[in-house]
């Protein structure tokens, strides 16, 4: 008992010593004025000059998720009418619209993992009970050709995507996360799609690469006026190179050749320019002097 009491006294003395000699000064926490309540968050509020950009982006996200829903409903109707090829095209376009704004969906907890996990994410693969969403639909439609099971999987997917749309209609995204997403879109291509690992049953990763590039560029286009010309020019040149390669595989609006048609030469060229682009986009937060967390200065 004496030992425990002695230890407690020592801890208490250390606590009193440091509390008297260290003062924390918040540098960037919001100032509370008037009677308004400020809710403590980990994010720094978006500066006023970027508000139009973040608002416009959420409108863009809602539109793309709305188009995802339209294509999933088209998929259902075509399957009911026994138009399997049309249903397959509808799946590819539905996933394309989703991939255009996927990084924002990732901000909503586990939502993306629930509706967009690949079979390779699970030890039991396609038999795992957690394997559902887009890629379950893809597997059943393109590999198993099981119309009844596909319709059931689409119904569950539609329920989740409709929920996402309702959330997007009321949510806002802060500028820091939005800018980070422009780089993350490119990273996502490098991690999975450039190797053809996303849509392995529909062979449609070229379509998703185009969607991720579009999503990244849309964000950059919104903030470009705030970026110095010396920084924005290399980024724009890279987008032109990337889009030029992808466009050579375009069949018509929102439709691209199968991923297997991508040549090794173009794959290597894409890898090079995408790697450079991901790095350049990742520097934008520092260029715009946007912090991710509140900073505290400790003074003795």
TrEMBL record:
Keywords: Signal
Ranges where the Imelysin-like domain occurs: 73-222
Predominant subcellular localization, coarse grouping: other
Name recorded for this polypeptide: Iron uptake system component EfeO
Family: Belongs to the EfeM/EfeO family.
Pfam families tied to this protein: Peptidase_M75
Cellular compartment(s): Cell envelope
Species for this entry: Photobacterium piscicola
GO (cellular component) term, any one: cell envelope
Domain of life: Bacteria
